Amino acid sequence: MSQFAFLKTEFPQLHVAVARAEALGLRDPRAACFYGRLALEEMVHWLYEHDGKLRSPFTSNLDSLIHEPSFQNLLGPALVAKARLVKSLGNKAAHEARTTIPPDSAVTSLRELFHLCYWLGRTYGRDTRLSATMQFDAALLPRPVAKGSVVPVAELQRIAAQLEEAEKKRAEAEAARLISEAQRQQEQAERAALRAEIARLKAANSAVPDPHDYDEAATRNSFIDLLLREAGWTLDQPRDREYPVTGMPNSSGQGFVDYVLWGDDGKPLAVVEAKRTAKDARIGQQQAKTYADCLEAMTGQRPLIFYTNGYEHWLWDDGRYPPRPVQGFLTREEMALSIQRRNSLKPLAETEIDRAIAGRTYQTRAIRRVAETFERDNQRRALLVMATGSGKTRT
Predict the structure, then answer these.
(1) Which residues neighbour 138 within 8 Å (Cβ) at sequence distance 6 or greater?
(2) Averaged over 264-278, what is the pLDDT?
(3) Quick count: other Cβ atoms within 10 Å of Cβ 172?
(4) Which of 16-30, 139-153, 289-303 has the highest mean pLDDT?
(5) Would you say residue 330 has pLDDT above 70?
(6) Are 106 and 29 in contact (CB under 8 A)?
């Protein structure tokens, strides 16, 4: 029996989509991730159609729908992280033909999709018998009777194009159908009644505490792994995770770094500290710095510092710049260059200003002040406020 069978009665279209991904989980990981993304899209469109509190963004692509503030407020950070992970794995399967999609990617996609579907059923469904102990079990995925051929990438891309075209035609047909004012009013009345019923169910279901374990740690780790692999980090060595360090300020003096990213010379380029998805990523800042202190003492090289909760990421080169939010991780070459620059940068204070370009006294002073902001104050940006005609462009 499908692990998504609880969707069949109230969410039949979504059940068809997830069952297709589930059936392909062990036979064809690429296709399973692809259809998992389509199932997510079906779920997100259902929410926008039936929950009146959601505001439709300017464009209706999946990325825009997920990042709309009202959608993020509805689901919360942990579930949004799951949706982003399913979307990213599906995009990778559809568009990166030369990249191998491992079986654990399909299992990850299905596991996160299961949590999302459970939340949907519990929040909007009439069936109040959903057990909080329900969990996705990869061992229960359907076993292929015989080895079958995988779905070609070109076929997945063709299906995606067809679905996009079908969605476009559906929207055009919907717009044409609502030209009639009478039909439009009737449609609005029917939709208002349906949304009122959905709101009633949502309020009733939300009033009951939700003890379901959404396994935030697995979501966080899978998302971090995905982002690191996109930056070229294979994470295939034991020392890449839970690396032991000495010199910690605790009774044993021992500690374990969540991730250490190593350079070609065997020295650490970066540490990554991961916190719970529900927590602010910045909570891990001091702990990550302590790990960097330990690694510097052990190896003679201070690594860059990343700390993240799976969906917010911060980068800190603490000898040069304050922490700043980033969208992902750097490649090995980018990290090595950042560390190399610590010693190879030439001081701006000693650099000669070309007075043929900006030779006025106040221009020279402005340039020197910006240089001080970068070098003395360790800032990454500066603002110059100059009057009209004073030569801002030349400065």
Answers:
(1) 25, 107, 110, 111
(2) 88
(3) 10
(4) 289-303
(5) yes
(6) yes
**pLDDT, tens digit (0-9, with 9 covering 90-100), for 175-201:** 666 566 667 677 778 888 888 888 888
The answer for residues whose C-beta is within 8 angstroms of residue 54's C-beta and 6 or more apart is: 47, 48, 68, 70, 71, 74
Q: Is the dihedral of CA 165, 166, 167, 173 positive or negative?
A: positive
Q: What is the pLDDT of residue 59?
A: 81
- Compute the mean pLDDT over every residue in the chain, rounded to the nearest whole number: 87
Residues 6+ apart with CB under 8 A from 297: 247
Find the mean pLDDT for residues 134-151. Answer: 75
Contacts of 109 (CB under 8 A, 6+ apart): 21, 32, 33, 36, 37, 85, 86, 89, 90
Q: Whole-angstrom distance between the N-terminal and C-terminal Cα of the chain? A: 70
- How far is it, in rounded angstroms, from Cα 73 to Cα 304? 32
CA-wise closest residue to 243 among 227, 267, 226 = 267
Strands (DSSP E) found in the chain: 241-246, 254-262, 268-274, 304-308, 313-316, 324-326
Query: Which ranges of 231-331 does DSSP label H, i.e. alpha helix?
Result: 285-299
Contact 288, 271 (CB under 8 A): yes
CA distance 368 to 385: 14
Kindly give, in sequence order, each residue whose CB lies less than 8 Å from that of residue 113, ignoring residues fewer than 6 positions away. 18, 21, 36, 39, 40, 82, 86
**Which tokens go with 174?**
């919907």
Phi and psi torsions of 286, nearest 5°: -65, -40
Element (H, E) at 119: helix 103-124
378-386: list long-range contacts, CB under 8 Å, 24+ apart.
378/320, 378/321, 378/322, 379/321, 379/322, 380/321, 380/322, 380/324
Q: How far apart are CA 391 and CA 395, in angstroms?
A: 6
What is the spatial distance between Cα 305 and Cα 291, in angstroms, rounded to a whole number?
Answer: 9
Q: pLDDT tens digit string along 195-211?
A: 888 888 888 888 888 88
CB contact at 8 A, 136 and 243:
no
d(CA 162, CA 253) in angstroms, rounded, equals 59
